[in-house]
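Reviewers of the previous submission asked for a worked example of the structure-prediction workflow described in the proposal, so we include one complete record here. The input consisted solely of the amino acid sequence. No template or homolog information was supplied to the procedure at any stage.
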Amino acid sequence: MIADIKSSKVVFFIGAGASVAAGVPDTYSLVDEFKENIQEEDKKGTIEKIIETLKSWKNSNIDIELLLETLTKLENKEQESLLQFYEDGNFILKDAFQKKPLIKDLKDFIKSKAIVSEENVQYLQPLLAFIHEFRPLDIVSLNYDTCIEQFCNIHKLTYQDGFDVYWNPKVFGAEHIDIRLYKLHGSVIWYQSDRGDYIKLPVMTDESKVQLITGEKAENLMLYPIQKWDYTEPLLELLVYAKQLLESETCEFLVVIGYSFRDDHIRRILWDAARKNRKLCVLLIDPNAHKIYSEKLKYYDNEQSNLSSLDGRVICLPYKFEKVFPSLRLYYLKKLQDALLDEEKQHKAEITGGKTDWMSSFNLFVEAEHFEKAENLLSKNDEIKHKLEGLDCLRKLEYLLKASLNFSEGKEEKEANEYFNKLNDFLRKMLIERIHVVATDRNGIEIHFNKHRNSLATNILSNECDNCIRAEGFNGYIENLNKICEMRKNFVCCNDGLFLKIVKKLKELKDYLEPIVRDISSRDYRELRKNNGLSDQFSDKYKKFREEGYSPKLRKELESMIQKVETGILEEIVKKK
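From that input alone, the workflow returned the following structure tokens.
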């Protein structure tokens, strides 16, 4: 053990999803590609039958882990204890040839897909900024591929993975390292010789076994999916090192990319680390981030009755890694750091009886998309509730929009629709229930929103509009919300469903606001709304309004007429849920 190694402040933990952009298939695509890669008809027929049987059983697509596990069990079916409890069962593959060649074919195929070329790792470019800030940067990988190694080769970076030529973990403690790489499941360039040595051979070969010049034979040191742990010194030591890193007081943020936490021992290591390291926060980047968190990390048990040490400490970013990666350090991570520091500041002020501003913490957690934390603050803090209903209402729009988009992309339809409906309701309150129309003495019309009033009559009779938002200002805010949607378009896997509804609603609001962002003359208003139910009496009434010296009675009638038209238009936009 290298006891004095301290982790970097930010540690990366990468699974298969982190390598998809490099051309390495994910665990589901590997199954389809392997099936298409088989040339021999009898083998193809056997693997197709196995895949279809598994699909029918699971009622879903299957991944490479289940396929390899099945092939391994089929090879050793006589050793399966459950089969001893069946009598006269028909084995549907009894006429097929031995499965051992299929297992070798599949392992060789996995290896061939794990060798990546230099031009395919450009999407990892943002790592350079992390290395510059947190050198040496710790990366824990469950992948066999050479993405990180190729990246280091391109940018002339120094990395250590525990090997010089032979396994030698002391190299992790060397000076002037850019990346410390811990590959817990082995690598396509790691081998174990038949004499028990562990060596690194950066050679290009699709075969899982090679012969050394010494005459020894060596086999890839790769822990395949669902494979039981055998004693292999490098992999066991690397697992201990990874645990040590996460428990280190210097580790504050764990960025998990494209990993579903199917491995029980990895989950338990992370839970243990979170208990010991109270600063540890997890940023989980995966299209299924919410599901992974709720089903694998948030609870210790499958019944979801016993909250784990990671409860409230996972930020779910259900986006494509290669798209969100350029924004990760300066946006998400920076906002999260600021939010945690601000939260600590408010706690200290609260304890000492000083003035608190919990709204600032809430806003920062929303910007970092840590909605679980934001909701927790909102549910317990009257200060935030009050401000969200008051002058800071525009912040509430941003909060509800971002939450709708995040949960929608994370396939959490219930939560996404709840936030979207809250967004709709809040727009109704601001735009329809609190619309404020003024017929001015300058032969013009002003339209404002979010007017706090005691009654409609008071609003119509008063030309004052304290705490109102002019259409011009609200239009600018809607434009900002549209920019948020445009940014998310690049992150998400598919722009459909609720995402499109939100984008459409914001565009309709923008189109509605643009013509009325400034005072509009009565003539222009009549032309603008002539197809929206504006009374034919409008022009005559406005003319009389001017001729009679802007009487309060006629002003009230005109404003009521205009408000009815504007409310009708807004009802059509806002009502859509």
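The longest strand covers residues 186-193. We consider this example representative of the routine output the project will generate in years two and three.
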